Every structure is written in C-alpha cells, then in structure tokens.
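FAQ: What does the model actually see?

It sees only this:
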Amino acid sequence: MSSLSLPFYQKHHRHYDRDYRNTQLSSTMQEYRQEEKRSTATHSHRVRSKFSDEMLETSSGSPQMKRAKQDYYSKGKENEAVDYIVPVFRGCHEHFSGITSSKDERTKQSKSSHFAGESHSALSSTIEEHNIEKSAMHKSRKVAIRESAERISLNKEIYDIQDFHKRLREDSLLRLPEFIIKPRSHTVWEKQNVKLHCTVSGWPVPRVTWYKNNVSINVHTDPGKYIIDSKYGVHSLEINNCDFDDTAQYRASAMNAKGELSAFASVVVKRFKAEHGDLSFHSGRIAPPSYDYFPGDPHMKFEVHFVDMFNVSFGKEGDTLSLGCTVVVYPNLKRFQPEIQWWRNGIQLQPSKWVEMHWGGETATLTFTHLNKEDEGLYTIRVLTKSGYEVHSAYVFVRDADAEVAGAPGAPLDVYCLDANKDYVIVTWKQPAVDGGSSILGYFVDRCEVGTNHWVQCNDTPVKFARFPVTGLVEGRSYIFRVRAVNNVGISRPSRVSEPVAALDPADKARLKGIPLAPWTGQIIVTEEEPAEGVVPGQPTELAVTEATRNYVVLSWKPPGQRGHEGIMYYVEKCVAGTEDWQRVNPEIPVKSPRFALFDLAEGKSYRFRVRSANSAGISEPSEPTDFTEVTDKLDVPKAPSHVVPSRNTDTSMVVTWEESKDAKELVGYYIEASISGSGKWEPCNNKPVKGKRFICHGLQTGQLYKFRVRAVNAAGLSQFSHESEALEVKAALAAPAPPYGITVLESVRDSMVLGWKQPKFQGGADITGYFVDYREIIDGIPGKWKEANIKAITERAYRIHDLKENMVYQFQVRAINMAGVGLPSLPSEKFTCEEWTIAVPGPPHDVMYTEVRKNSLVLLWKAPIYSGRSEVTGYYADVREADADDEKWRSVNEKEISKRHIKVQGLKEGVKYVFRVRAVNRAGVGKPSDLTEPVTAETPPGTKEIAVNVDDDGVISLTFECADMAEGSKFIWSKNYEDLIDSSRVTMETKGGKTKIIFNDPGKEDLGIYSCVVTETDGVSSSYAIDEAELLRLLELSHEHKFPVVPLKSELAVELLEKGQVRFWLEAERLSPNGQCKFVFNDKEIKNDEKYKIKVDHKTGLVEMIMDKLEDINEGTYTVQLQDGKASNQSSLVLIGDVFKNLQKEAEFQRGEWLRKQGPHFVEYLSWEVNNDCSVLLKCKVANIKKETSIIWYKDDREIMFDEKHDFKDGVCTLLVQQFSKKDAGVYEIVLKDDRGRDSSTLRLLEKAFGDVISEVCRAAAQTATDLKVQSTEHGIRIYSFVTYYLDDLKIIWYHKDTKLASTDRVKSGVTGEQLWLQINEPTEKDKGRYTLELFDGKAGHKKSVELSGTVFDEAFAEFQRLKQAAIAEKNRARVIGGLPDVVTIQEGKSLNLTCNVWGEPAPTVSWLKNDRELLGDAHLILKFDSGKFASFTITDVRTTDSGKYSILVKNKYGTETGDFTVSVFIPEDEEVQVEPEKAAKKK
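And it is asked to produce this:
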C-alpha cells in the first residue's frame, strides 16, 4: 500500500494531506455503492439459478466446489451482508499441510465429496417434488383431501407398529457408548481455530461432555472461545483464536444408562518466533487464518479506515494512559471481524498486568494500567483482514515520576535477568536519562523471593556497571529484582520489577526428562538419568572468562563427560600473575553450577583461573587454566556522538539526526536532550534509549529556538554529551499545498467557460501564489488527455477558459502552487457541457467563505456571480441550515435582499455545525445558489481576541488587534467593509510582532464602516470593529478629552467635621502622579501649610486634604483647590457663607464640646427604655470612661431614687428596673455620672406620648404572654378564661362569639380577676355553641386567642355545669349548724348549763343531741328544745360530775347532715366561778 512507503511521522503530519486521500477514497466508495445498487436489482433473481448451476457443476466431478456468492436483499441496508451461504472447502490451505496428516486430508476431501453428493441429491429431490406439486394442481380438491387423509392415517399406523416393537425389544437394544470415530490430536499455530470431532453410538443416545485437563468446559465462562455442537451423532468442540494456554489434553466423555466411555486428544499450539522470521510483520503477510475467519468470496476486498486516531501521547510514571481509535472496515460483516494487534517498537504486545487490550467491534483501545518508562516507544495498531493489513502509529513518551528526594536521579529501567543458574543470577538494566543534576554514583540491586514482599539489598556499595551477578540464592526458588540509582543527593525510586526467574542450572534442566502423568491435570513427573557409581568425576572443560569488570569476574565451563557416582560440584581456584600459587576461592561451599562469579579481586591485577569437579568419590584434576585476565572494566564507556543536526517537522516537533559513537561496544541506545536557546535548562526528549541515529522530538513549543545534544549508553555508563546543535526555530516544514476542491462553472458561453473553486484546506505553510487549470474532453463517456488551460499561474479562484468547443463535454482539474512547489491536482470535476447560458436569473455567487466564527455568530463573505442574467444583480440572499439537516431545513438569514456582499449571521447555537449558501437576485428573480461552504461549528476558538479601539494621550484614535498563534509567514490583512483599504491617506498601518493597528489620520464621516483584520496562515483568526456615527462621536469626544486633559476627580471639594471639632476640607482625584501639584486658595489668596492650616497630598490615592483646628468668623468665604498634573489640570470650589457657614461653625463647636465631655465619665448611649418579657420596664444607658470613684445617681421628678446596693458597671451598662409599670410610674427620669474629672447626665421623659408608648409596649408584652383559652364549668354556667403575666387597665379586653363582639349582659359577663381574663356564660344553651375569641388590644394592635366551644367540648362542659349546679343547690339547702356552740365548756358542779345554737336547712332539719356518740333524750335534768326550725337549746338544770363528756348536736335533712361538737367538763372548785370561753366551731359530718 502507498501509506506504507511513508514513515509514521509523515503519514499523519498535516503537511501530507489526509483530506485529499479521504476525499478520493470517499469518491471511490460512493461509486462502488452506486454500482452495487444497480447490480442488486439484477442479482437477486439470478441467485437460485447460479446456485443450481454451481451444484450441478460440483457434482459432475469438479475437484473443488465453487464458492457461493454473497446474497444481498435488494431492499436491505447498503453494503451490509444480510444472508451468507457458507462455502464448502475441499481441504486445508497449502500452508496447513504440515499440521495435519495426509490421511486426515483424504478424509476431509471424501467428506466434502459426500456433502456435495448430498447437496446434488437434495437438489434433484427438490426439483422432483416441485414437478409433483405442479401436477397435483390439476387434481380436484376432493381427491387431494382424500389422498392426504389416507397418507396421514398410514403414517400413524406405521408409527404405532414401530413404537410397539421398540418397547418390546427395549432391553435387547440397550448398549454401552462406543466411539466409532475418536477425536484426533492437532498441532496448530497461534490465532488459528481448531475443531475436534467424534462420532458416538449407543442406546439410549449417549450424552457427550468435553473436558480440558479433566475440567469440564463451560462455553459461558468465555463467550466465543468454545463452540460445542452435536448433530446426527457427530459431536464437535471448536476452539477459536487459539493461544498458548490452549495447549492441553481434551477428553470427550460419552455417558448413558449403560455406562461411560472417554476418548482423548491433545492440542499443541505453536507460537511464531521473530528470530525465525515473523511472517505477520511484513507487508501483505498475515498469520494463517482459520477456516471460518474470512468470507468465501475470493474476490472480496476489505477496506480499513482509522477514525479518531490516537496521536503522540505524553505520560508520567504511575499514570494510567489509554490509546484508542475507531476502526471502520468495509464491507462490515459481523461474522467476520478483523484481527487487532498492538505492537511496540516492532514487537507484538500481549495482555499482561501492565497493558490491557479491548476490541468492541468498532473501537480498539490499549490501556496502560501503570505507566513505566519501559512503556515508552512507537506504538502501532495493526488491523488484519483477508486483503492484508492497515497500520497506524504514534509515539508514547513517559517521563520520570517526581523524585521522593529533590535532586535524586530517575529510576533505572528494563531490568531483566541475563543469566540464571543454581548459584547466581546476572541482573542487567539500563541507565536513566535524568540524573537529578548530579552524576550517578552507582546502583543498588534488590531481590525479592516470589510470593513474599521482603526486599533484600544485594550489594553494599553502589555498582556503576549496569550488570551485576546476584549470589546467595536458594536453589529451585524464584526471584524478582529491581534496581535503584544513587547520586550525591539521594536514591531514586525503584525500577519496575523484573520477570520472575528460578535459581536452576540450565545444564540440569537439559538432563531432566518430563513425562506427562495426566495431561488433563497438568502434572509432570520429573526423573534423572541414572548416574554411574563410585567414579571420580573428570575434569571440567572449555573454561572461559565470560565477563570481567572491576568488581567481579564471571567464569563458565562445561561439566565433565564422566560424572562419577552422584551429582557433582565444583571448586574454583585462582592464581595471581607472576606466581604459581593457586588459591581455592570457595573452599567451604562448593559450586553446583558450571558458572561462577568471583568478587573481592584486586583491581588492576591479572589472574588465571581453573576449576576442579568433585563428588563423594573424590576431586578431579584441575581444568586447563584460563589466560591471564586483568580485573578491570573490559567494556568502555562509549564516545560521544557527533554532528547533531535538527530539522523541522511540525509546529511542535523536530527531527534530530546524529552520527553514531565510534568504536562503541554493546551499545544500548541514545538519550536526546533539548533546550530553549538562552535558557540554559536541558530537558530529556526520551526516557528510554533509542537505537539508530534519528529521532523525532515531540512536545516542543511553537516559535521557540531549540538546541539539541545526544549521548550514548551502554552497560559501562553514559557517554559525554555531544556538541550542541545549532539553534533552530520550531515551526512546520514547508510543503506543497493540498489540492483545491469544489470546482464549479460560474458562466458558460459557446466557446468559453468560467470556473470557480475553493482554496486548499492546507496551504503547506506558505502563501499560495497561484493556480493551474487543466481540462479534457469527454467523448462518448471516454475521457481524453489533460490539457493546460493556463501556462502562467493565476492568482484568482475564478478563471475563464477560452477556445472550447460548443456542446462539448469537459472535465477540469486545478492545482495550487506555493514557494515549496506545485501541489497535487484536484479530483476531476463533474462533467460540464460548453453551451450558451440563456437563463434570465443570475448565476451562482462564488468564493463563499466565512470568517470571525464565534459561538453565536459569524460573518459570511462572497463574490458577485460572473453571469448576471438579463439584468444587473440587485441583491443577495444568504441561507443557512444545520450540516446534518435535510434540504427542506434551509432558511434565509435576511428577510430582505441586501446589496452588500457580506452579512453577519447571528443567532447560531453553540457547538452546532452549519453550512451556508448565497443566492443572487435581479429583476427576473432569484438565481441558482452557490456551492455550500464547508461545515463550520459555532464556537469561539480558545484564546480569541477582538479588535480594540484605543485613544492615546495625544487624542489619536486607533484600532488594535493581537494574535498569539501566528506562524512564520503569517500576515495581518486589514479591510474596510470587507474590501481592501484603497485610500491609505485616511489611515496609517503599523505592525510589530503579533500586534497590528491602524491609526486614523483625520477621523471623520468618511471613516464610518466595518474594519476587519484577518491573520493568514492560521485557523481563521479574524475580528472586526464597526464604527457608526454614535461610536465616531464618542471617540471624537474622548480624543478631545485626551488632547485637553483634566485631572479626573472621584469627588469634588467637600467639608466635614472631625472628632475634636476640627474642620477638614478634602477632595479625591482618580489618579495623581508623583509630580502632581496642589494649591488651596481662600478668597483668592493661597493658603500655606502652617500651624492653622495643615495641608496633605497623597499621590498614591489621589487624596488632597486641609485641616483647620477651629472655625472662626474670619474663615467665612470661598475655598478652592487647584490641581496640576503634567498637562492635565482641574479645580474644585466650596462656598461657606451665610447660614451654611454658621451652621457648620455651630456644629463644630458642638463637636468640640462633645469631645471635651468625653474626657470624663460620659454616656455612650443615652437613657432609653425597653420592656422585658415579664412586662417589666427596664431603663438603661451605656457609659464609658468610668473608674472606681465614679458615682451614679438616679432621679425621678428631681427626687433621688435610693438603692440598697452600689451599682455595678458591668459591660458599661446602667439599668433601672420598674416592675408592674403603671400610670404612677410616669415622670422624668434622670441619671447623673460624676467624679473628679467631670459630670454628665442623661434624661428620659416618660410623659404624655412617651409614656403612652411605654404603656402600649407593656400592653403588647402582656398580651403576648396570654395563654391559650381554656373552658371551665361552674355551678352558674361555662367560663372561658386565659391568664396573662401582668394585667393593667390600659390593656383592652374584647370578647367575640362567631366574629360578633359580645356585650356584657346578666347572662354573659366578662371580667378580670387578678391575672385571669374570663368570660362567664350563665345558663348556657345550644345558641352559645361556636368559636370564642379573646382580643387583647395594646393600643396599636390586637392579639387574639380562640377556642372552639362545640361538639364534645360543649357537651362535656354543659354536663359538668349541670352536675355542679345540682351540687350547689344541695350545698345551699343542706342542714348545717350555723354557730353558737363553744368548743369546750368548763362548769362547776351544781350550776345550771344552758347552750343555744343556730341551725339552718331547707326543708327544716331534724335536731338530735348525742353524748359520747349516744343519743340523749330530754327530761327534767336535761332539757332539749328546737324552736322555729332555727334555734336549738341545750340545758342541764343541775350539773353533776357525771355530766362531763363529749356532746354533739346532729342536724339532718334530705340534702345532708352536720354535727356540732363541744366538751363539758364539770369540776368541784372552792368558790371559783365557772368561766366559759366560747369559741365557735362547726364540723361537717
């Protein structure tokens, strides 16, 4: 393929036009699709006849069947295979002949013939049935139905008889499974498919299960890997895309009711090795495909295209990175997918713990789970199809991870084991590119036994040689290794670990034999050859020094042919040059391997070595000694490369070449470093050594000058750096332009045609200087030779070709030219006929292009049509639609035609692609639309800058535009109204670097218009600025201000009073330079800075101020501040006369007094009041400058309020609390502060309105404390009540029933008892149900509480009222002792006792008297009376001592009973009067 002839860095370089190749390919594919559509209609009806012909041809003795063509439905999707007939192959392909035996080939060939015969029979049978059906059409319907019924009946009878005999002989039919054809072993290559077959008989029909290494195969665990099929007694296992892990023994197990039988077959998967010639690496060669890998059509070709390809990538150690691209294969057959391979530096990659590969049918990705420097290199994705393969490549750069210690070197890389045996392993690595700024002193090698996480350092001192033998290993165990670099600053991060390696002797491995005991389990039996017994081993042979450095020497030899009694060991001896003294190096521990590393040798001395073999039978004679070997590094550090030459590649990369190091041995590669010229800082371009003498350095900054240097690497170390290259600017290399496109005819007459075309998408890094046009005649559809239309290049993209033939068909092509050369020609245009245009409407406008692309708008430009029709063009219409929309979605940008050839399209949607076209208009109508523009996405490019208007200090107006993305050769092109600036006298252009501006020489109305600027050789960098009459007027005013500048002021001259009563005059300018000057003028006299007038100017803030200590009468007048700053000046005045001056003077005196007041104890906040939640009033003030001796006195109405405790100035607050505030608390309150420094007072008048405000606030607080309304039943009715914290008369109480205000009546009353607010409803009725509301009005607002008296609430309250009412009646009318009886009566014996008490009750109660709880009856001694139902008397005529005791009166009626108790005590004193202390007592019974 042509793409393979280009290096990877050019194939995807923008200089090599991919769009051209894509356009050509698109055209070819389009022609293919059209041809396919045309052939589809005629293909479908020929499929059956072709199929029959091929079958007949095969059956007639053809050695190989014809492959069936693909069958496409005529109405299916274009180019998609809907149906596919599987071809029948004669046998294996030629390159499989070494895999299977000839017998197998013959078997397959016979099967193929058998299948072909069956197909022919089936075809004949189909034709016969068709003839029978055709003849049956002529039978009557009745006869056909009868014959069909007879056939069904006969078939049923035959089936019943067979089923009866089958059950009758069932026992005799049962038999064990038997393999008629057993599965055969296969040896295949990787990526092939393999299929195992077997045929099994037995009854009942055996069930076959497939096993791999004795493990049942589950097709669902790895979908697509295994396909198991069973048909007609033939069982098969197909293994797809074989890999090395599929090497195993496979077992087919057949089982039924009689038993089980197994058959075995082995599959060996071979791997292609690069050293034997990698067939899949070369162009046109792929790995051998399996039988079903590609379709059967030998003429079908697959086209592979890469979309969204991965580019050069940069990563850091430890990061995760993914490479991916979309792969489009045409035709797309789902059954036949391509094979995706990933390669790095020419070596195919396999999935591992470091890389993951994924192919989803469209997108192929390669993911690095943990980037390492070993992953750096050129990555290639290879897509294999039957037609060959396509590749895409890009480089991946991996830089070092941040060092754990600043200045430490980078980690080594590519650690692997060069040699391994029982006693040691030679570990080798590559040096890092980054040394941290300090030379690397050496390396530490660490080892870790596989299965553990314990790392052991193998060397105590750093080794400089990038190869080291590790000893002290345990035989048979596996190890991994890593390396760390060290310099004067610290130790690097460890390298990536090596692959595991086992400490085994290769010679021992060669003597081992492995016999698979059970291949399906993977177990291996290892045996050793039987040695001879009792024989002293012979001497080793071919002793040689394989490696010698200043730190160690490695010896190797061959074991003796005579091994002796048992396994042998070795003793190594050394001898210093000049002596014959042989010393044994390992006297205590013999060597088990035929290799040995010697340490602790004297550097610079020469040694000879010899080896003895030994076993239990004895020690052999020494081997032949080696030649003298000097203990020094045999491998020298390579010399520095030379002739480093950079060359341009792209705008971010350069190609660096050099001459290789001379006489370099075991060269590992080269490191390249780059530096921006003048910076002195070098950065590595690659972190993994590269071989060869050419490298592309990516990631460079466009436009910077770079220098490069190179050094070589081998195991001995890094060479010195080469000489620095010359500095070269990073920019894209020049190339010929891409082909133009979009050729169209703008006008046609009898002998000439005018062509138009679009400029190439890629100009090759230089301006296009012209175009060449070619044409050719098309006669009877056959194109002629190309002819040149112009010899001299034309600069316009419209050209008239003369001397054409009328009514002749022509094709055209165009080539562009720049300073790099002539580009490729465009694709041939459509076929145009040279004929006279006679249409009345104008032709299409041409050269339609867009500029100033933003997220919501762009500017559309075009040129007038060449053919104007029968009248002049009067205007244009611009149309727009989304790129993916249908033609019906076209809409006009402008409702009315415009005469200008440019328009700004607004209202675009950000991120949406659009296409545009333009139509010209004349008197006859609207003409043919122009060609569509290229699709453009409405988005603002990053870093976009707009044209800025500027007016400098001299009043010069200019437009400025900057571009940061300019390439070499880029130019600024200014235009007015999108046409060239012809009148250069109006403006002056200046350009310097990436900045340009036009200066208006004499701004006026002639300069009105749209000014635009385009930067060539960029991705459409452009901008515009419109100057209309309003904008021009604004700019002229601004220009005048700059010509005659003034010092801008933030604030005019103002005056304010300071704390001490000082007067401050001040103004603030927006800016004031250090050279700015200021003058204060009072009544036309300048004020000087002295003790009275203190003037201060702050140039940084622009603040100007003057402070006067005291404002006197002589200071009345006009104050002016004059500013002068360079050419700019300004002034501001302030008039202080009359009332303005007097008020200011009065306020100044007040401020001075306030300041003096605050020198002693004073009030910060004067006396005020507030109402607390408990409705108390708190008088408070805040004081300051208080000391211990300061006293505070409260007064009310000039009378001192006395306190028991001294006031506490906590937080500087003085308070006076007034509980239950009422009208008596109205008055004038005063608080006085005084001490030896002064006196201050504060007065609060709580009278009239102020008092009313306090009362209103107290009422509000009280109203807010009201509790929710509650319902209480009494003996008189129902009471609704609420409590407040404090009640005062000013709090108005209003009750509502159903939103109707209640008036006080005999039945419904309201009142206040203490803190209770109540509503009494006497004798409630049903009318009293409803919602009751209590409103507390504080004088300003009302506060409401409501309760619902209805339903169960009313019923329960009413029932309780009835109960209490009855209880009250009973309490009122019950019998009771009202009074008259004493508690105790003391009387002298012989006296007369008379007691009377009042009783009451309705009805009148009955009265009885008790003594000691026993009823008394009246007699002459005890007289008991009860008169008028109210008065009861108790008389004892002659008191005796026996009359002492407890007496009770018992009154009783129907409502209750009550007793009255008294005690009578009789004594016999001498001449003492009986004294009775009457005390009333009544006790309820």
